[in-house]
Amino acid sequence: MAAERVTIVEVGPRDGLQNEKGEVATQDKLALIAELADAGLARIEATAFVSPRWVPQMADHEAVMRGVPHRPSVTFSALVPNEKGAEAALAAGAQALAVFTAASESFCRKNTNCSIAESIGRFRPVMALAVRAGVPVRGYVSCALDCPYEGEIAPEAVAAVSAELLELGCSEIALSDTLGRGTPERTAAMVEAALRRAPAAMLAGHFHDTSGRAIANVAAAWELGLRVFDGSVGGLGGCPYAPGAAGNLATERLVAHFAAKGIETGVDLARLSAIAERVIARFRPAGDALR
Ligand code: HMG
Ligand code: MG
Which of 132, 197, 230, 232 could be bridged to 12 by S-S, CB 3.0 to 4.6 A? Predict the structure, then answer.
């Protein structure tokens, strides 16, 4: 019998580096992206075409997107909030796009200065551009478990936003624990609600790891049929508009978790661990806020 497979989406160059206070040179970002591709990560979110006034760390998005290495086996995607971002990302060679909204009105407003409904309205022209370019669009639903401003979020609210994104034409919904304080029980309830509106094959899990339960949450989502999970190398990450959110689930921990279960990731764990060590030495030399 063939081994089971999981798809790992590397979001470190975007979700990780968007949160770093010090400047990271474009060349350093590109070197990291190339190393991650060489370690076997087949989907890499390279950058975000967002306002440089809102997230200055991603201001070099065009140079990053244009500079990603040529690897036929790797898809390099860009996060975009609106038509302006989508146009620029596609012009720079993005092979996939990701839009982002939330299951919490307060977070959506803090993060993108608009309501959930308005954010979805902004995605319509993004979808039209993506269809024309023939690229897939992932839709993130932030605050799928907790919101830094509203507290616990109802699973049905997550399911409703997910259904709207699918109706719009998203090919995948990334159910996102932005704060990283979720439990496996609440993750399961949220994923079950999403599954009433969408097939498992169209859902992905994006967990931050503030409380150290991200792997347990991944395991709960896997049990319910999810087969796509996000990681950020070295556990870098957070969101500038989500106070209290620590790093993302470290990709090397995610890969090690599946490797221990005999589930294929396609990623070379030794190579990835070596990259993670360098990332941690550079960005978290004191070992703070990393799991
Ligand atoms: P706004 O200020 O309401 O929009 O921002 P605006 O239309 O009035 O534009 C303001 C300025 O931004 C203008 O420039 C626009 O041209 C420019 P100015 O004339 O003032 O010089 N602008 C852009 N520039 C570059 N690229 C663009 C773009 N759009 C407008 N695409 C906006 C609205 C959405 C743009 C802003 O709120 C924004 O960029 N927000 C992004 C916030 C962000 O990136 N957050 C982190 C990523 S989300 C995340 O981390 C969560 C996730 O990981 C999942 C999870 O864990 O939950 C995905
Ligand atoms: Mg995130």
Answer: 232
Residue 291 included in any domain: no
Residue 119 lies in a domain: yes
- Select from 79, 71, 77, 8 the least CA-distant residue to 37: 71
Average pLDDT over residues 192-215: 97
- Closest atom of ligand 1 relative to the 206 alpha carbon: 56
As given in the structure block, the two tokens for residue 215 are: 């792997």
pLDDT, one tens digit per residue, over 130-188 is: 999 999 999 999 999 999 999 999 999 999 999 999 999 999 999 999 999 999 999 99
Tokens 């907790």 belong to residue: 146
**Residue 1 pLDDT more than 70?**
no
* Ligand 1 probe mutation, 15, 49, 50, 51, most atoms within 8 A of CB: 51
**Domain limits at 38?**
7-283
* pLDDT (0 to 100) of residue 246: 78
DSSP classification of residue 59: T
CB-based pocket (< 6 A), ligand 1: 15, 18, 48-51, 53-55, 81-82, 84-85, 100, 111-113, 140, 142, 176, 178, 206, 208, 239, 241
Catalytic-residue membership of 239:
yes
Is 95 inside a domain boundary? yes
